[in-house]
Amino acid sequence: MLKIWLLLPIIAIFTLELQKEWLIISTKDGVEKFDPSGLTLWKDKLITVSDKSENSDKIYELVTKNDGYADAKPLIFLNKEQISQYSGAQKYRVDFEGVTNNNRFFYICDERNRNILQVSENGDMQKMPIDFYSYTTTQHWNPFSGVTNAGFEGIAYDKHAQKMYVLNERMYRHIYEVHDHKITSDFDVPSGNALPRYEGKYAIYPDFSGAYFDKYLYVIYRNEYKILCIDPQKKSIVSSAYYGHITKKLYHREDPFGLVEGIAMTADKIFLIIDNNGIALHKNAAKTNSILLQFKRPKGF
Questions:
Q1: Which end of the chain, C or N, has fewer beta carbons within 10 A?
Q2: Mind telling me which Pfam families this protein's record contains (predicted)?
Q3: What is the pLDDT of residue 32?
Q4: Distance between CA atoms of 81 and 92, rounded to whole angstroms?
């Protein structure tokens, strides 16, 4: 099989220092196992969504506690009629896989249907009129494969420029810049790996998952256990940060695709959220909780 190698430029590489970790539960939903997907900061609150169908009518706040748990509490309930109408009109089940906000609205990725939903604080929602399919098939290279769960995985918002960045996960990974409901640019950055690389029976393609914007675009390069700091104007990598020395030890096993689903950042902290796909914790095989991690943000990153 032909392999294509994409080389990374020489950049600053940081290693993240873990500060805290919490097992995620949802007492309101009455479950120990909550499946988060995506992360954002809104009014100093950590916000997430879930990729499970039964949770696709809510936006959650993660409330961290001193007992080592983070409680996923429903914060916003999507309008029942609107989400029902939207769900009924889609080819695939609704699959929330990323969340961001611009202070006024939340924006959620529906991965399998490759749509972006806009949600207000009172739960009113609508599908954003962004025509990804026409753009990719008539104007630019089309990264959409026939794999339904290889679609939109991450989303971030540049509040200053009023631009949104939507990430296609894999096969093939891609970044879309959106302004005023229109795609204004699309790009990828060098992965440094073959397309694909192999680990045993697995063919592993370069991927993206969560994203966050803070002067630069920060994206999770999940199966390399890295955060990439990207200059979206130059379409180049500024620096990267490695977290695999922490996450690889959390669970009894980890498939080579990685498990981190979301990222949020403050001036001195980086939060990562993990959806472990039901894999048991390394320290306690009886538990299968997802995890929220807090790292020290390196200076200059």
A1: N
A2: SdiA-regulated
A3: 66
A4: 18
Q: What are 246-294's pLDDT values in tens digits?
A: 999 999 877 778 899 999 999 999 999 999 888 889 988 889 999 999 9
Q: Is the pTM value of this prediction over 0.85?
A: yes
10 Å CB burial of residue 256 (0-12, 13-18, 19+) is: exposed
- With beta carbons less than 8 A apart as the criterion, state whether 117 and 58 touch: no
3-state secondary structure of 120: coil
Give the model confidence (pLDDT) of 22-64 as tens digits: 999 998 766 667 999 999 999 999 999 999 888 889 999 999 9
What whole-number distance in Å separates Cα of residue 282 and Cα of residue 296?
Answer: 23
What is the rounded distance in angstroms from the CA atom of residue 186 to the CA atom of residue 272? 25
Domain boundaries, given as residue ranges, for the chain = 4-296
Q: Is the peptide bond before 60 cis (omega within 30 degrees of 0)?
A: no
Amino acid at 160: H
Q: How many CB atoms lie within 10 A of CB 196?
A: 16
Q: Which of 251, 253, 259 is nearest to 281 (CA)?
A: 251
